[in-house]
Amino acid sequence: MPARASSRSAAGGEVQASRATLAVGSQSKAIGDQLRKAAATIVKATVLEIDANLRASPDEGGTPVDTGNARSNWIPSIGSPHDGEVSGDGGHAAGVAAVAGYQLQAGPVFVSNAAPYIDALNRGSSTQAPAMFIESAVDKALATMQGRFGNAAISVDKFRDDVGSAGAENLASAYSPFGDD
Fold this sequence. Notes:
The chain is mainly alpha-helical. It is built from 5 helices and 2 strands, in the order ααβαβαα.
């Protein structure tokens, strides 16, 4: 009998331990869900702020405008940079809508530009904007996000996409909201 009582105590202990693990596991999941949601919010806000800065008027630090083609080719995307030059604002609207619904598990986010002369514009070929206006727009967005979200570590990877012609020089890739990994 004592062994049996001991067995029941052990079984009761296992149930208690299992309940404690379940409670901690549920809290961990809830915390993880909140962190992922907060990180996705920061990613979305950062990409959309970079996009807004790049599409702003040249006197506000945005893309120089002659025909509007370079400005309309700033396309936010998820998973990989948008590939190919676009005409009009349909691609941009679709990209913004996609980013608005972004969740971390969808992968990195980008703002890219496939206008064949975007590199030349960024090197200062237009009198409407200084050289490196893209980097300035990104820096401005990051400063805004630091002010809005405080100590969230925001880093932006730069890339050069040579698909097609000059492709997009620089822009926003996903970042770790937990620091530079």
